[in-house]
Amino acid sequence: QVQFVESGGGWVQPGGSLRLSCASSRSLFNFVAVGWYRQAPGEQREMVVNKPNTGSPYYADSVQGRFTLIRDDAKNTVYLEMTKLKPEDTAVYYCNARTRDTEDYWGQGIQVTVSS
User: Fold this and answer.
1) Secondary structure (3-state) at 7
2) DSSP string, the chain
3) How far apart are CA 53 and CA 51, in angstroms?
4) Whole-angstrom distance, CA of residue 62 vs CA of residue 12
5) What is the number of H-type helices and E-type strands within the chain?
6) Mean pLDDT within 89-100
7) Largest CA distance in the chain
8) CA 82 to CA 5: how far, in whole Å?
9) Residue 30 backbone phi and psi in degrees, to 5
């Protein structure tokens, strides 16, 4: 069973930065795409960024230019660098990985709170 363990969340003031990490128990080469999603209270889970193994990452309009997905194959870890954070970025963030059989794996979720 594949496991993804997230870390790095917390509280930050507007305009600040955070870096989320998602460590996989298996090589990332087992997956055709990796990404990050988020879910705010009372809202549906939404895509933040998705990156196929071949191709460029695709970012949601709301985070374009502020968030960056970084993939470290040597560490089997995916990062989400978040800058210029806004209160509307407050949510539980989930890392995601998809197999060739379109099976999705998720991290446990980690809280990010942006407030003054």
Assistant:
1) strand
2) ---EEEE--EEE-TT--EEEEEEESS-GGG-SEEEEEEE-TTS--EEEEEEESSS--EE-TTTTTTEEEEEETTTTEEEEEE-S--GGG-EEEEEEEE-TT--EEE---EEEEE--
3) 7
4) 18
5) 0, 11
6) 97
7) 43
8) 18
9) -75, -10
- Give first-to-last CA distance, the chain, whole Å: 40
Residue 1 confidence (pLDDT) above 90: no
Where does the pLDDT of residue 2 fall: very low under 50, low under 70, confident under 90, or very high at 90 and above? Answer: confident
Structure tokens belonging to residue 95: 């890392």
Residue 78 predicted with pLDDT over 90:
yes
Name every residue whose Cβ is closer than 8 Å to that of residue 52 and which is 6 or more positions away in sequence: 32, 33
**What number is the average pLDDT over the span 87-92?**
98
